[in-house]
Amino acid sequence: MSKHDSFIKELKELDVTVFDEREVTLNSGMIYGVIDDLGSIKRTARKLIERNHSLVSPTNIPGAIIGGNMSQSFRLRDPSWPLSKYMRGVSITLFHKEKGAIAEDAKVGDIFIVHDVQVTKNGQFNMSLTTNKYTKSSKWCYLDAETLQPRVTPHMALELNDKDIAVAKVLKAWSMPTPPKIIHPSTPSNIIHPPTSSIPPTTSSIPPTPSNNIPPTPSNNIPPTPTNAPPTPSKYSPAFKTTEEMEIKKFCGYVGKVVACQLQKSNLLQLILTDYTPNKFPMAEFYQSQDLIPSELLVQASLWDENATAGHDIEKGDYVELHNAQVKRSKLGYMELAVRGDRTFGQKTPKVKKIENVHDDARVKRIMQREDAFWKEVMPPMLEEDNLVDTHNVHTVVGGSASIFTLEQILNDDQIDKEYTVHAAVLDVKPRNLRSWIKKWCPKCEWIEEPDADHCSQCRQSIHEYSLMSAFLLQDSHSRRMQLQVYGEDAKAMFPSLIPIRPEEDYLIALKDLIDRILSVNPEKPELYLNIGVKSYMTIANNRQFRLRATAFHFD
Q1: 156 with 139: CB under 8 angstroms?
Q2: In which residue ranges is the amino acid composition biased (Pro residues) (predicted)?
């Protein structure tokens, strides 16, 4: 008997009909399953006719949903359908007139229970769930996958009975991953490495120290273990892995540097971490580091519940140690870490710790070595010593009266739409292909289009003006770095000698000459730095970023 068969047997003993054995119709039915592929909560824009794969709340019009109701779609599985979510599962859409009937904090893996539904089976794998025509109402409940506690839904009260709880326990035992066996780390052969060829290997061995040169000690005279050595891998504390060595659906320990941190809500602290090894499934299209660290070297870590509280003093630049973190794929497809529970069962040690003595920790030293190698690799060729100038051939004029700030002060300030001025050098520009800087610009709605566009896709107004769209990497006298977005009206005016902007060859040649002169300013001489206007803003993804403001570059 397989693992899945044994769980199916337990469910049948509880008088549960599994998905694969549903009859054609079943009135006053109950549905039990594990949530897979969870969608967001949405508001329906218009009247929708009842359709397949729908679990529908009662309305005044039979078989219809009135526009303005809330909805959420997801997929359910049980032990009878253990295959990939794209192969089998029951697709469901919940509808209700109140948003409070749908759990905002529901997660993939939660147990979902529905009472009083009519079930219709269509084809081999599809199943439709609709409101029971006799009771006129369906009720549901989400149970947290870890604690089996109901999620808060003020407008959907389902009183769970003993059978519901017993079934939930079986589904939890079936769906929860088994702690992995400890194996020696291996480097996957299909990883595409970013341009960091000079980064030292990511082995788990500690670099030689004077103590490593001591002759072997007899087995009956074992030397004491160093106080800062990592704990011995065990069932409750899996081996530490680099980002490169992680495997999806496995558990591991992790040490990384904090690139960004944000408290999303009272029980969720999200960290962006790096150990300067490549991520097999990066969040390339969803996150951009202010320090210009490529997303291929970043990994997101979500600290839940007590861990969010314990990590309140974690700041950008800290090094943290995570224990028993689960490696998973997010809904957007990138790899992330999830840390739940404040103590490791069986050891009573914290799962999240900030490393205080960073210079005494061999794992942190290896991260620092890879970081140094990374920045040496990515420094632009224009910054080679022979190409640098030590004279004032570039100066700027910044509008407004904003005071001079350091990059550290700007990055640590939480204010949005605030104007700053920074004294810094431009280390690099992106993209390197200057032709791709030129965009069409809509002054009415501040939207950017490709150069061949005739109309703005947002307001439909005709557009004829060009602007520039790029990014600068800034560095101040404290060696702090920040990425600065360049676009819009400020980008149009930053080179007074090159107005108007046009997608022609002579313009691109002149633009390249000005960019080369900006990049030739010696970053080792702060007296040559430029005053640059900066403005903070919030992106659609709720990330605080920075853009160029009111800065004109002049050349002697």
Answers
A1: yes
A2: 207-233
Tell me phi and psi for residue 436, to 5 degrees: -75, -5
Task: Give pTM, 2 decimals.
Answer: 0.41
- Tokens read off for 397: 């004029």
CA neighbor of 492 nearest in space, from 510, 468, 513: 468
Question: pLDDT of 18-55, one tens digit each?
Answer: 877 765 444 457 888 888 777 778 766 544 333 333 33
Q: How far apart are CA 20 and CA 7, in angstroms?
A: 14
Strand 64-65 and strand 466-468: pairing?
A: unpaired
How many separate helices (H) and strands (E) can be counted in the chain?
A: 7, 26
Q: Which residues of 353-387 are buried (b: 16+ CB within 10 A; e: fewer)?
A: bebeeeeebebbebbeebbebbeeebeeebbeeee
Q: Is the pLDDT of residue 482 over 70?
A: yes
Query: Which tens digit of pLDDT belongs to each residue from 226-243?
Result: 444 555 555 556 788 999
Antiparallel, parallel or unpaired: β 419-430 and 404-405: parallel
Give the C-alpha separation, 273 to 288, whole Å: 12
How far, in Å, CA of 116 to CA of 318, rounded? 52
d(CA 149, CA 381): 57
* Domains in the chain, CATH or no CATH each: 3-45+67-175 (2.40.50.140), 240-371 (2.40.50.140), 394-555 (2.40.50.140)
Tokens (6 digits) for 34: 């594990």
Closest to 283 in 3D by CA, of 271, 293, 296? 296
Residue 350, judged by CB atoms within 10 A of its CB (0-12, 13-18, 19+), counts as middle
Residues contacting residue 527 through CB under 8 Å, at least 6 positions apart: none
